[in-house]
Amino acid sequence: MNIAIDLDIESQNWPIAGQFRIARGQKSVAELIEVRLHANGHTGHGECVPYARYNESIKSVSEQINSIKEPLQIAFSCKQLQDMLPAGAARNAVDCALWDLKAQIVQKPVWELANMEPPTKMITACTLSLATAQQMAKAASELSDYPLLKVKLAGNKEDISRIRAIYAARTDAKFILDGNEGFDMHSLQALCDQIDDLPIAAIEQPLPAKYDQDLQHINTRFDLCADESLHTCSDLPNIARKYQMINIKLDKTGGLTEALRLCEQAKLLGLKIMVGCMVSTSLSMLPALLVAGKATLVDLDGPLLLKADRPHGLQYSGAHIMPQSSKLWGYPRRK
User: Fold this and answer.
1) Which tens digit of pLDDT belongs to each residue from 160-173?
2) Which among 210, 240, 263, 276 has most CB atoms closer than 10 A?
3) CATH fold of the domain at 6-107
């Protein structure tokens, strides 16, 4: 785009409905950054979630974004951005805002600009926050409209009881088991041996990323899915030796541009695709929907975990994300 672009950012807190707990800890508020890019009377929006696991904070990500304010006063593109910022939350918010801005300027939806089919109705997983077996089973029974549940695990002996209780409550469902790096090889093999009869769609990032080379020796029929171990295309050759699936999150890839590239490269290696998210609003979900159309598993329930979503957010009908043009992101809007 041969235009000058102005940038502003805003840090925001979005309360979570209840507590969101995983193996690494818990939180009650989603801390986000919204990026707005202004040009020719139009505004493009993007959102990111700084993640401490990747040494990110609201402060550090804000500083990264602000570091490119001056270069943004000249002609700018998503391709140039890949060299200006590393993969991560900061680049994600700017990249998605650029796609949205271009949609306003040329009056075409982002899916068309990316030479893709428009989003269609799809089923998303819904997340069960880590709790006691009884609490998680109760939560699962209350999600009867969701045929796919993402189960947060702790990496301890109680996980078997959690999974069995959840399955007893929802024998009609399939499950993504998410270890969030909480297991070691011994506990992981023991888990796989004891749940071999259950409808498990995938086991996500069971080992810490720095030890996941041991996954080459695991004995299981389940697909193992890389999350914390997988960020960009450069990770794929190593990932393909240990995993059968990858979880693409735009806050890891550094935006939609790299996510689309990663999706295509992963499929060439025979890897299955999951599209996931951080706890965030529909402003994060809408760009991810474009990748979700190429995925085996979709986990875009971020807004459902919040007390409230942004105006004009995604519409959910039970487990289904409903396709629609959006006033929030990705479609031409009136000035």
Assistant:
1) 999 999 999 999 99
2) 276
3) Enolase-like; domain 1 (3.30.390)
Residue with tokens 């990663």: 262
Which is the catalytic residue, given 108, 121, 157, 249?
249
Length of the chain: 335
- What count of Cα atoms within 13 Å lies in the side-chain half-sphere of residue 76? 25
Which residues have a Cβ under 8 Å from the Cβ of 88 and sit 6 or more positions away? 54, 56, 61, 64, 251, 252, 254
Which neighbouring-strand residues pair with 32? 12
List where CATH 3.20.20.120 sits in the chain: 122-321
List Cβ neighbours of 212 (8 Å cut-off, separation of 6 or more): 205, 226, 229, 242
* 174-216 confidence digits (pLDDT tens): 999 999 999 999 999 999 999 999 999 999 999 999 999 999 9
Q: Provide the β-strand partners of residue 148.
A: 174
In the CATH scheme, what is the homologous superfamily, with its name and number, of domain 122-321? Enolase-like C-terminal domain (3.20.20.120)
Active-site option among 69, 108, 121, 152: 152
Confidence (pTM): 0.95
d(CA 45, CA 327): 11
Query: Average pLDDT per run of 10 along the chain, which is 335 residues long?
Result: 82 90 78 95 96 96 92 69 95 97 94 94 96 96 97 95 98 97 96 96 97 95 98 97 98 98 97 97 97 96 96 95 91 82
Question: Which one, of 229, 252, 246, 248, lies nearest residue 50 by Cα?
Answer: 252
- Of the candidates 39, 33, 96, the one whose C-alpha atom is nearest the C-alpha of residue 66 is 33
d(CA 93, CA 47): 5
